[in-house]
Amino acid sequence: AIIDKMDPSQAFGEQIPFCEPYWYQGFPSPYYTENHKAFRAKVRKFVEEELKPHVEDWIGKGYPIELHEKAYAAGIAGLGYPAEFGGTRPADYDSFYELIMIDEFTRGGAHILGQLGINSMALPPILLHGSEEVKAKVCRPVITGKKNICLAISEPYAGSDVANIRTTAVREGDVYVVNGMKKWITGGLYADFFTAAVRTGGEGMGGISLLLIDRHTPGVSVRKMPTQFDSTHNTTFIEFDNVRVPVSQLIGEENMGFMMLMLNFNHERFLIAATSCRNARMCYEEAFKYAMERQTFGKPLVSHQIIRYKFAEMARQIESLHDSVERMAFLFSRGVPDTDLGVPCALLKVQATKVFEFCAREASHIFGGSSVVREGRGKIVERLYREVRANAIPGGSEEILLDFAIRNCVARTRQLLGSKL
Predict the structure, then answer these.
(1) Could you report the per-residue pLDDT of 20-46, keeping only the tens digit for each?
(2) Backbone angles phi, psi at 132, to 5 degrees
(3) Radius of gyration of the chain (CA)
(4) Which residues are 168's β-sheet partners?
(5) DSSP 47
(6) Distance in angstroms (rounded) separating the CA atoms of residues 18 and 355
(7) Residues 377, 380, 385, 387: what is their CA dihedral angle, to the nearest 10 degrees?
(8) In 12-39, which positions are buried (b, 16+ CB within 10 angstroms) versus exposed (e)?
(9) What's the rounded Cα separation, in Å, for the pair 120 and 142?
């Protein structure tokens, strides 16, 4: 049954206002059921026991990849996938389960289990368009936590400009010979496979295909790239040097990869928005607890009106953002086609990263000098501040997405006006 009544006895997690989503604090919701609550408790227990105690040890080194199999065995990691490939999707599965999982994982900090999110971005083109051979090779091992897969799209000369990628795949008999470079590929060190965008045809979007590339194929090299932010995950640079890939590992039809990628971006942007929302909330939580204790000019920091104003602005934006993230989860759950979700997902992602940036800045100012050192009470906010751009740029930069949204609105309006002439 839906949680449709105010019930303080059902409070979960931190009860300081706005430090958790509203339904954690006893408020009713039109979206969540007792099954969602049970799943939330399961994920939080896993995060508290398996992730948070190890954050500091795993930063820079990476978290143990065996954690994926643990998360799968716990009934968490296989949640959104079909049972035929090892998925553990409950009968009442909807996108709110995934929202709970991403929200709770983000609390763990420093991108622990971040590869599970990357897997969920790289697998859908295979699940939707891959041959039975490709599905058999990849889906079950990835879903059950034994292997991993990454998207390989961005290049040194083509980030958001996906239509102009230069990595080529030239057909020679029953193989494609792949040459080129991929940059900023999240999780490349963990990957066993890449869902790679390659150029099989002419210029522009009409010449792009998707290939499944085995990382261990001769000619594939992967190196870690240092990043602005702390992470237990990894960002990588990949080179393909005469890599021979069987034609049977083409995903979907040749030269039809661009649209597959565009539709796939919706889910990626939803995940980034959910992550950014919890990151913003953590900035608020850390700063609020500090302001309640910190004494300045003879009184608690929170007693200063300007500090309360900062918290009010943060809370206002976080709560509004969370409502928008839930609305997108609702649209996904009701089966709204991806072709209709491009603009809403683009705007949601931009709103989310802007709110995160605002909260990181405000929390940093509330902490003062404690937020510019990587130790002490302000270290979490310091770390989150350096993560802002890592949320704002991947999946489409804010500027690109805003322009994309309005270009689509202009095109739609012209269609509507034209139909009335």
Answers:
(1) 999 999 999 999 999 999 999 999 999
(2) -60, -35
(3) 22
(4) 179, 199
(5) I
(6) 14
(7) 170
(8) eeeeeebbbbebbbbeebebbeebbbeb
(9) 9
User: Which among 51, 133, 42 is positioned nearest to 88, based on CA atoms?
Assistant: 42
Token output for 344: 């809403």
Task: Indicate the pairing of strand 149-152 with strand 193-199.
Answer: parallel
Q: Residue type for 36, please?
A: H
- The C-alpha atoms of residue 1 and residue 31 are separated, in whole angstroms, by 10
Token output for 36: 């969602």
pTM summary value: 0.94
Give CA–CA dist 99/95, Å, rounded: 6
Q: Is 348:328 a contact under the CB 8 Å cutoff?
A: yes
Using alpha carbons only, give the angle 170, 172, 176 rounded to the nearest 5 degrees. 50
Report which secondary-structure segment, H or E, holds 233. none
Each residue's pLDDT tens digit, 231-256: 999 999 999 999 999 999 999 999 99
Parallel, antiparallel, or unpaired for β 193-199 and 175-186? unpaired
Q: In the predicted model, what is the mean pLDDT of the chain?
A: 95
Q: In angstroms, rounded to a whole number, what is the distance separating the alpha carbons of residues 394 and 87?
A: 27
